[in-house]
Amino acid sequence: MNAIKNFEELKNHLKSTGTRKRLALANALDSHSLEAVMMSVEEGFIDAYLVGKKEEVSKLLEQEFGSKIKEYEQYLHIVDCRGDAVEAATEAALMVRNKQCDMLMKGLVNTDVILRAVLNKEKGIHTPGNVLAFNSCFDIPMYHKLVFMTDPAIIPEPTKEQRIAMIKYSIETARKFGVSRPKIALIHATEVANPKIRFMQDYLDIMEMYRNGEFGDVVMDGPVDVFLAIDKERGEIKRIDTPVLGDADILIFPDFQSANVFYKTAQTFGNASMAGLVYGADSPVVITSRSDSTDTKFYSICMACVLA
What we know:
The chain contains twelve helices and eleven strands. The protein is α/β, with parallel strands linked by helices and 308 residues long. The strands form two sheets. Strands 8-7-9-6-5-10 form a six-stranded mixed β-sheet, with helices on both faces. A five-stranded parallel β-sheet has the order 3-2-1-4-11, sandwiched between helices.
């Protein structure tokens, strides 16, 4: 498989497989989420299970898509749930747990509610001990390939063990996108390893693990700044010798704050398209913000399909 270099190639790859993944949409009353799901159904790679109060979901489907529903009704299944958003999230997670669906997606549900459904010991889809982290994928017009980054949403101050898990998740994701030897950049404001910085020892220990072969066939360097990682021209000006120069596949940020700023800035000022999901559950979990565009939700579904 050749590496998928942009979201158009990602969509075409999924269409070419000729298979549909089953998606459970928890409390399917968010119009943007429904639109993204419908786009995925139309493109031919999703079979949708819409969990919520049947009459409300049916009304919203009719309102948003009209006659189109009839054309795709064999791929649109309403799962009647008479309870509130919490019960809908629990029911959707249980469907994934019971292998009735391949992935879980947040609808009109608060993020903490969907995460509690994932973590539910009796009905959820999380193996105790696994680290939950948010893994994003960006299609940036100025960059020559997709770039993965973590974690802008879940872990505020990662421990070393959590960083290691996040790196392994990102490597697995990149490989499923066809990147045979991912290049990983441990991001800092500078390439200088200042031992007074709170996370620097983690970076140094992780680099030692890399040199010992503990991450497999990858290329890793750190600390490096974003210029070195993804801008070859600016990096060459600095005359820093790094194997990831202007060609990183994965950006590992030191904390929630820096990752979240990059995540939002790349979209706002870099015109980047974004996909993202929660990693570490037993199946992919698509969690997007209510302010995210329909395209972001659609590409997040695409990303989940590759990993499911």
